[in-house]
């Protein structure tokens, strides 16, 4: 373990440790090891205890993938928000939502290649916590990760 943690500076480890304490995360050692692991593809997005850790430089891609995988949710955004993103009149979106055609709206967003634009506007308006932190909608920064309470 000591050799693995040598990659991080002691001051950085100390700062992260304090941040983990403030979130009341008990398994600090595994968090530190995961954050410092060389196999970044595995540890871009991981869960320990009731928290989800997502590397800051990967979070937009991860959120876009999650949005694409749920057409229904894509169709549930506010009508004015969707209309602005996909260039369709708000009244049309409202009518589709009233008819519960949420998946059709989601498919439209995907087919028009507007998921990235939607995700960027979503984060700009609400941050990441609303999407990832189902428990309290809060986002925290620990090292180069965003941390979200999920349970």
Instruction: Please give the domain count.
Output: 2
Radius of gyration: 19 Å
Query: Helix coverage percent of residues?
Result: 40-55%
Number of strands: 4
Helix/strand/pairing class, anyone? Answer: alpha+beta
Average pLDDT score: 90
Q: What does the largest sheet look like? A: 4 strands, antiparallel
Explain what this protein looks like in three dimensions:
This protein has 151 residues and is an alpha+beta fold. It has two domains: 2-58 and 128-149, no CATH class; 62-126, no CATH class. Helices cover 54% and strands 11% of the residues. The protein has ten helices and four strands, in the order H-H-H-E-E-H-H-H-H-H-H-H-E-E. Mean pLDDT is 90; it is low at 1-5.
Keywords for this entry:
4-stranded antiparallel sheet; 10 helices; 151 residues; alpha+beta; 54% helix; 2 domains; disordered N terminus
Describe how the helices and strands are arranged.
Blueprint: H1 2-5, H2 10-22, H3 28-35, E1 45-48, E2 51-55, H4 59-68, H5 71-74, H6 79-86, H7 90-98, H8 102-111, H9 115-126, H10 129-132, E3 140-142, E4 145-149
Antiparallel strand pairs: 1-2, 2-4, 3-4
């Amino acid at each position: 373990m000591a050799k693995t943690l040598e990659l991080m500076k002691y001051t950085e480890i100390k700062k992260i440790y304090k941040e983990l304490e403030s979130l009341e995360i008990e398994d600090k050692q595994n968090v530190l090891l995961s954050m410092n692991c060389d196999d970044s593809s595995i540890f871009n997005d991981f869960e320990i205890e009731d928290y989800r850790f997502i590397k800051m430089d990967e979070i937009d891609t991860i959120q876009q993938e999650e949005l694409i995988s749920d057409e229904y949710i894509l169709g549930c955004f506010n009508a004015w928000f969707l209309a602005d993103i996909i260039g369709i009149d708000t009244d049309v979106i409202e009518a589709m939502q009233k008819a519960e055609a949420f998946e059709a709206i989601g498919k439209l967003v995907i087919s028009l290649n507007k998921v990235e634009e939607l995700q960027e506007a979503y984060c700009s308006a609400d941050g990441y916590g609303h999407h990832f932190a189902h428990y309290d909608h809060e986002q925290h920064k620990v090292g180069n990760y965003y941390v979200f309470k999920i349970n």
